[in-house]
Design a protein that fits this description.
Layout (H helix, E strand, L loop, with lengths): L1 H8 L4 E5 L8 H7 L3 E3 L10 H21 L7 E2 L29 E4 L14 H9 L7 E4 L7 H4 L2 H16 L8 H19 L10
Parallel strand pairs: 1-2, 1-3
Antiparallel strand pairs: 4-5
């Protein structure tokens, strides 16, 4: 959540937002004010379904490709968080290649939150808990660095995964964090399994076994 306000404050490019979120009071007004690239979704999609996740990913990919095709000098670029998930920030997860399809020069930006004694900027539980942590912190030190723009090579221009990996290495070098081998999908699965284990432990039973 903090990242979004930092981006607005420093005048970063347009955020990419799913259109349904623009209907939320206040948030929607902010997104429209900063010229967000709104990505429409099919009205038949259900937010909790796996198919909706795939639909959203495809919709974002198509919106980005369309933005790149129509982009003209002087237009405002879009800003993305290519990992696609919030985590503890101790490493760089794999990037979604769909963000890099269609070619174009990429401006890598790192946002670092030096902290002590705990990371209040890390959104890992609920919005209320996140706000509580933020409010209990006297101040947040945030370091934003614009790295050297990356122009895809001829090979990368036709291979979004190669472009994503090249930019990921630049970000890793820029902020001094190691590269991880997993991505958002695997991390979500791990988090889901950990949550299931925790819930099972609270219920006094093992996963897959019913209480008797």
């Amino acid at each position: 959540m903090v990242d979004a306000f930092v981006a607005i404050y420093i005048g970063c490019p347009r955020p990419v937002v799913l259109a349904p979120y623009a209907k939320i009071p206040v948030i929607g007004s902010i997104m429209r004010a900063v010229g967000a690239l709104l990505v429409p979704l099919s009205s038949s999609s259900k937010p909790s379904s796996e198919s909706e996740g795939k639909s959203a990913t495809n919709a974002v990919r198509e919106a980005l490709i369309g933005h790149k095709k129509s982009f003209q000098p002087g237009d405002i670029a879009v800003g993305l968080f290519p990992e696609g998930i919030t985590h503890n920030g101790s490493s760089i997860l794999t990037f979604f290649p769909g963000s890099f399809e269609g070619g174009g020069v990429i401006q890598p930006v790192t946002v670092v939150y030096p902290y002590m004694p705990f990371n209040s900027a890390f959104f890992s539980t609920t919005i209320l808990d996140h706000v509580r942590k933020l409010m209990s912190t006297p101040y947040l030190a945030i370091r934003v660095e614009f790295l050297t723009p990356h122009k895809p090579t001829e090979e990368e221009a036709v291979d979004a995964k190669a472009t994503a990996e090249a930019v990921r290495r630049l970000v890793s070098e820029g902020c001094g964090l190691p590269l991880n081998t997993i991505g958002a999908k695997q991390l979500r699965q791990e988090m889901k399994e950990e949550e299931e284990k925790a819930n099972a432990a609270k219920a006094g039973r093992q996963p897959g076994k019913e209480m008797v």
